[in-house]
Predict the structure.
Amino acid sequence: MDDKVKIRCPACTHIFRENASRVRDGAQVNCLNCNKLITLTKETEDPFLRRALKAAREIRAAKDAAVHAAIYSGVASAPRREMP
Ligand SMILES: [Zn+2]
């Protein structure tokens, strides 16, 4: 599963990919091209950064859902004790 999101640097418009777990509201990442410190906030006017935050949130939610599904399927496949 691809857990990287695209981030467009507001300074140089270079597009790079960052791990979704690092892309969250209030986080800061450095542009790989011009080394500008980019603050990721959902308050930003930059639609590219807002999109990146949304995509990262969806990836994290999907990962959480997959973990929960694995846990619950494990419970469901365990032998059940029937009441007499
Ligand atoms: Zn840049």
About this structure: The chain has a mean pLDDT of 91. DSSP finds one helix and four strands in the chain.
